[in-house]
Amino acid sequence: MSAAERDPQTPPAPETHWLRRPRTIRVLWIVFGAILTATVAAEVLVHMHPRFRFESWFAFNAGYGFLVCVGMVLFAKALGMLLRRPDDYYEPKSTLSDGEERGRD
Predict the structure, then answer these.
(1) Under DSSP, is residue 82 helix (H, G, I), strand (E, B) or coil?
(2) Are 72 and 80 in contact (CB under 8 A)?
(3) pLDDT tens across 47-77, in order?
(4) Torsion of CA 36, 40, 42, 46, to 10 degrees
(5) Which element (helix H / strand E) includes 83?
(6) Which residues lie across from 95 on neighbouring strands?
(7) 0.90 cut: is pTM over it?
(8) CA-CA distances (angstroms) from residue 31 to 6, 16, 27, 37?
């Protein structure tokens, strides 16, 4: 007999959020991959009007977008390291009689 059967007051296990379920994550990856593939494949059907020669390369816009996204993430990480403050930054510090400073305990 399990603990839940012995104690009828035991609450049921909390349900996992739908975005954390492995099956949902797999489905989302497949859908995103299909959308990205369709977007790149659409370049064959759509006449592009490039200003520069490299813009006429196949899948240039997808590659450029990916590289810019990676660059933004790296910039945000570097900016976060630059602007980071200690965990106790906003806690008031108390000064003891001997001049030693201590945070809240």
Answers:
(1) helix
(2) no
(3) 889 999 999 999 999 899 999 999 999 999 9
(4) 140
(5) helix 60-83
(6) 101
(7) no
(8) 44, 21, 6, 10
Name residues whose C-beta falls within 8 Å of residue 60's C-beta, 6 or more positions apart in sequence. Answer: 54
Which tokens go with 86? 């200690």
101 Cβ neighbours under 8 A, 6+ residues apart: 93, 94, 95
DSSP 13-81: PPPPPGGGSHHHHHHHHHHHHHHHHHHHHHHHHS----SSGGGGSTTHHHHHHHHHHHHHHHHHHHHHH
**Residue 94 contacts by C-beta under 8 Å, 6 or more apart in sequence?**
101, 102, 103, 104
- Length of the chain equals 105
Max CA separation in the chain (angstroms): 78
The set of residues, in sequence order, having a beta carbon less than 8 Å from that of 104 and lying 6+ positions away, is 88, 91, 92, 94
